[in-house]
Amino acid sequence: MAKSGVFEGDPTTVVKAVELKKELQKMVRAIVDEDDVNLEALDRAQQMLFALRELKLKKTVSLKLHNHHYDHEMASETVPEEFKCPLSKELMRDPVIIATGQTYDKPFIQKWLKAGNRTCPLTQQVLSHTILTPNHLIREMITQWCKNHGIKLPDAVSYMNEEGLTGADRDHFLSLLGKMSLTLPEQKEAAKELRLLTKRMPSFRALFGESLDAISQLLSPLSQSNCETVVHPDLQEDVITTLLNLSIHDNNKKLVAETPTVIPLLMDALKTGTIETRSNAAATLFTLSALDSNKALIGKSGALRPLIDLLDEGYPLAMKDVASAIFNLCIIHENKVRAVRDGAVSSDTEKDHE
User: Which among 5, 95, 105, 167 could bridge 157 via Cys, Cβ 3.0 to 4.6 Å?
Assistant: First the structure.
């Protein structure tokens, strides 16, 4: 005999279950007592068994919700559409806004962008940038809705995203950027670590595209030094090399080139840095010039002149990067004109006489 209380809770459910059990008992007795098999009675008994099973399943799901466990199949029917990610169709845990103003769950839109997509999945508009801005309003509304419905979602910051970064990694990243505005020893330490992290972990390169002022923070020691004092050569080298590392990430190229301080500081590094810094500055311009819009921007900024000057100096370490940058920039006609004007044609035949 079944234990009492299996269906306790909703009075309607309890009454219905009791009635089904009584009817089923009668039907079973009738089937057992009859000499011949009554197919209609068997079908009816089977229907009652299915009905009892459905009531039991309904009660199980109800208990899960009561105990604050999120059951997607049950809850998806009642979750407001504005709380669902357009990509996953599930309740969002970490809603973020993209350039077009649409909101997505962060892990899913990051996966979309990582796959090389540069459009909004909903509107198909081309994204002007890939910065993801937290949607605090929707987040609060989802939190309140979950509270009202007895659903407990995992904390978004405790998730590992698809690139393997944790909330602690992001906090560390922001901490390093913060040190770039402190004392010289702290700037040097932070710049060295950012250089290593962006070299070893592609996920850290992507982080620069998610924060509106991350690149400006990285470059702040070089920007300030132009007005105050000569930049420390090791610090300049680490910052420029970090810029090269994060420029490798396709989704960063447009953002990096269009950050106002980037190209002027790269031009300054071409003139004043160590030979490794100058070579890496040239490599950064080459990497950024993969986009035609960046080719035009770099050319208009006057970067061809310091590149050609460095080519004239003939340092073996820098020659390949410098020549590659000049060649790539000159794919567009207006930069060819600028290069000829700045002496590129004669740079391999004329020598400086000091």
Answer: 167
